[in-house]
Amino acid sequence: MKAIVSGATKGIGKAITLALANEGYDLGLGARNLEELDFLRKEIQAIYPNIEVITKSVDFSQKHETRNFAETFLNYWGDIDILVNNVGVYEEDSLDDLSENGLMNMFNVNFFSAMRLTQPFLPEFKKRKSGHIINICSVLSKKMRKRAVSYSLSKQALYSYTKILRSELRDYDVKVTAILPGSTNTASWDGLDAPVDDFVQPEDVANGVLMAIKSNGLVEEFEIKPINPKY
Ligand SMILES: NC(=O)c1ccc[n+]([C@@H]2O[C@H](COP(=O)([O-])OP(=O)(O)OC[C@H]3O[C@@H](n4cnc5c(N)ncnc54)[C@H](OP(=O)(O)O)[C@@H]3O)[C@@H](O)[C@H]2O)c1
Question: 81 phi and psi, to 5 degrees?
Fold first, then answer.
């Protein structure tokens, strides 16, 4: 069993990666920081010596790097069982300071990375009639946050793409799941005055991913929020 995770070295991506390692998946992992990737590979292999862990430094905001990342694993493995499109960044803007550049930067990481990573694997998923694509969306995939316009739009695009993928791939027995976390205790909140202990924890999101993967049925969505409605 083989799985690819984008943005694997921190937060939600790392929690999902460790959960998949615990299930025995060989792993293809991407992020930009090479040292953190090496550290994670060693951390996993110290606990699970029989798992193959391949790490690759990649900037998922860049079209060619993302395609190249996908092709590396297509050429090496041929097929994969799980693709987790996790990479994403959160930045704030409003209608007043919305810029085309800001919007494009946000779309490149939060939406196009998933599309560019998924498209090359589709023929293989369809041919094998198996596989599971997990897209890490957000509660803001379903509603706008006025102070995070570009982020909300990019996550709504990812959510719509997820629904289109699901309806297309269902005929091929390929599952597609949208994960919609609310505020989650990760590095995304570093430097901000946030009650992170009351937030969703990355492991809670990873548990949702595991539930979707292990389910006999098709988990279309898994939405999880902090109990306190303020967050
Ligand atoms: N945290 C929340 O409250 C929350 C809520 C809802 C949804 N989400 C979504 O959950 C996902 C993960 O968020 P997180 O909070 O866990 O993030 P995080 O803790 O900031 O970790 C981000 C990961 O992605 C990598 N990354 C960031 N930009 C990259 C790029 N351009 N190219 C390659 N790798 C990149 C980072 O490594 P490098 O820096 O080394 O590249 C790191 O491994 C995102 O899609 C986010 O939108 C988060």
Answer: -95, -40
For residue 23, give both structure tokens: 């299930």
Pocket of ligand 1 (CB under 6 A): 7-13, 31-33, 36, 58-61, 86-90, 109, 136, 138, 181, 183-184, 186-188
For the chain, what is the radius of gyration of the CA atoms?
17
**43-77: b (≥16 Cβ within 10 Å) or e:** ebeeebeebebbbbebbbbbeebbeebbebbeeeb
**Protein residue whose Cα sits closest to atom 37 of ligand 1:** 31
Rounded to two decimals, what is the model's pTM? 0.98
What secondary structure letter does DSSP report for 201? P
Q: What is the residue whose two structure tokens read 């494009």?
A: 104
Full strand arrangement of the beta sheet holding 82-85: 53-57, 26-31, 2-6, 82-85, 132-136, 175-181, 221-224
The CATH code that applies to domain 2-224 is: 3.40.50.720
Distance from the alpha carbon of residue 80 to the mean position of ligand 1, in angstroms: 22
Question: φ and ψ at 27, to 5 degrees?
Answer: -125, 135
Domain locations in the chain?
2-224
Contact 10, 190 (CB under 8 A): no
Per-residue pLDDT of 150-174, as tens digits, reads 999 999 999 999 999 999 999 999 9
